Design the sequence.
């Protein structure tokens, strides 16, 4: 029976379906026998993401597996191009190592530890920028060092040396140090610290801080000199810093002035500068003699004869003794003037001398300032003069008649009364004597006390002047009463009247007696004897009226003074 082409196609498909179902049934029976273990370990992804249904290998052309999200080790940089089997050496993928050192041999011999990523990155094996920066912790890579390969410095016989290396320049550049001919470093004794002169940018960029490393600054003409000018034969260690160390020849060869013969100091800087050897300047003040006034314009040879500089005296007379000897107005020699010219003269000019007379102990004041020197210094005598006033004014002293100084024996110390301003008027301070003038004494003429112009030896007791008043006083009668002649006991200098006597032992200026008496005779009936007094002159109580009141009083007696024994203040009536 011919079914036709279409019918045959359907039959074929039906047979295939039956066969497929039979195979699947058989496969189902096989899978049902027990679970299958994956050689990759426990994976959470379907097998079909990597394998095909046709065969177990080869793998699919495009794997449906993302290593970055489905594992804990993302693939970055060059790791993306590495075949799986290079890291996964067995089919159990979870046993693959994640440390760099597990895959990459440590050519540094663990000098930097086991973490390659501290210097290297997944983008390439070359050293990263971060590691170069980390190099700054001990030896910064700057200048030309930044472009040098690591192996240029980190080299060794068997393998590269990275730790324990010296950072001293000479440890790498010892060959350059030894081969340097201009200047010969080894012969000169230069230190191995190359960075004292050389820079990091280039070996030929040389700069040496002469001031910092030697203590001798190169200034002025020194800055342009070649090193060998001072460091002869490449000798650098121990080179003297004193000027004379280099300029001894110049010092010895100088003739104007001759430095050696003049005994000049070998410290050239006292006169010369580093800018130039000529145009010298000497600080004469530093030698102890400042040049001022006319001295500043003098040639050195005017004082330093025959180029003699050491030991030149600084006293004025050493240069000006001839002028001193020839001066006649005044004659310095005969007057015995000191040879210290600076006492009168200045360095500005020899003329116009001014003498400070106060330095002699006799300051010129008042009329003395305008006097010519010869008025006091007669005969050109200036030394040894007496400073007392009378040494010049004795004639005035002897000629004065009002008062007559001679007969009055006034002391010859003129300044007691006179001043330097003018001879008259004179003023005498009596308070400077043993008898100060007070009260009425101030206005009394001198002749009232100094009788006959006698001043010396005038007595100072009151009675010497007031004897007449003493003898003529009758109330009380001073003579008859034998009162003391010390007038100040009762009187004062303000006025003679209104005397007050200190009535010792019996108050008469206070209590009931105040203003109850008029004269001393009220109590003292005997004017020739004031020791005698009577109470009953004022207290006129007759005996008949007084006795009855005192019958009980022991030792009562009626007489003139008995009242005083019981009534000392006179309080009785």
Sequence:
């Amino acid at each position: 029976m011919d079914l036709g082409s279409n019918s045959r196609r359907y039959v074929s498909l039906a047979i295939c379906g039956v066969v497929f179902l039979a195979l699947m049934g058989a496969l189902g029976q096989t899978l049902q026998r027990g679970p299958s273990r994956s050689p990759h370990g426990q994976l959470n992804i379907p097998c079909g993401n990597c394998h095909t249904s046709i065969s177990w290998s080869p793998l699919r052309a495009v794997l449906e597996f993302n290593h970055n999200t489905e594992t804990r080790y993302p693939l970055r940089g060059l790791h993306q191009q590495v075949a799986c089997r290079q890291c996964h050496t067995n089919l159990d993928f979870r046993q693959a190592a994640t440390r760099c050192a597990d895959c990459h041999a440590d050519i540094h011999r663990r000098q930097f530890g086991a973490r390659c990523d501290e210097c290297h990155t997944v983008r390439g094996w070359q050293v990263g920028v971060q590691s170069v920066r980390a190099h700054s912790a001990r030896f910064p890579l700057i200048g030309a060092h930044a472009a040098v390969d690591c192996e240029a410095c980190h080299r060794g016989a068997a393998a590269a040396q990275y730790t324990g290396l010296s950072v001293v320049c000479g440890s790498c550049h010892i060959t350059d140090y030894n081969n340097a001919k201009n200047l010969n470093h080894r012969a000169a004794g230069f230190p191995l610290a190359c960075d004292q002169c050389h820079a990091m940018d280039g070996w030929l960029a040389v700069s040496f801080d002469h001031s910092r490393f030697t203590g001798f600054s190169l200034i002025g003409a020194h800055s342009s000199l070649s090193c060998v000018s001072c460091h002869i034969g490449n000798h650098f260690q121990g080179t003297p810093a004193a000027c004379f160390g280099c300029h001894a020849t110049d010092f010895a060869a100088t003739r104007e002035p001759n430095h050696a013969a003049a005994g000049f100091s070998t410290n050239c800087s006292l006169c010369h500068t580093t800018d130039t050897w000529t145009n010298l300047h000497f600080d004469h003040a530093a030698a102890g003699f400042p040049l001022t006034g006319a001295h500043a314009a003098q040639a050195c040879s005017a004082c330093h004869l025959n180029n003699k500089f050491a030991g030149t005296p600084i006293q004025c007379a050493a240069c000006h003794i001839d002028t001193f000897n020839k001066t006649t107005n005044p004659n310095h020699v005969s007057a015995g003037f000191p040879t210290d010219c600076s006492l009168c003269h200045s360095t500005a000019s020899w003329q116009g001398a001014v003498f400070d007379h106060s330095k002699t102990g006799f300051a010129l004041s008042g009329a003395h300032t305008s006097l010519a020197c010869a008025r006091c210094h007669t005969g050109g005598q200036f030394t040894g003069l007496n400073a007392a006033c009378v040494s010049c004014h004795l004639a005035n002293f002897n000629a004065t008649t009002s008062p007559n100084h001679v007969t009055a024996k006034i002391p010859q110390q003129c300044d007691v009364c006179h001043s330097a301003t003018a001879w008259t008027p004179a003023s005498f301070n009596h308070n400077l004597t043993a008898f100060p003038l007070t009260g009425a004494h101030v206005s009394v003429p001198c002749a009232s006390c100094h009788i006959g112009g006698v001043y010396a030896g005038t007595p100072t007791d009151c009675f010497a002047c007031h004897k007449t008043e003493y003898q003529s006083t009758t109330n009380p009668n001073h003579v008859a009463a034998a009162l003391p002649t010390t007038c100040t006991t009762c009187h004062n200098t303000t006025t003679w009247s209104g005397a007050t006597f200190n009535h010792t032992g019996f108050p008469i200026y206070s209590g009931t007696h105040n203003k109850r008496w008029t004269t001393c005779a009220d109590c003292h009936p005997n004017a020739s004897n004031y020791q005698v007094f009577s109470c009953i002159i004022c207290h006129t109580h007759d005996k008949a009226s007084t006795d009855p009141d005192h019958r009980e009083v022991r030792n009562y007696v009626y007489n003139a003074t008995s009242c005083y024994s019981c009534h000392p203040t006179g309080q009785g009536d």
Residues 313-385 form one domain. Confidence is low (pLDDT under 50) at residues 1-34. The radius of gyration is 68 Å. The chain has 21 helices and no strands.
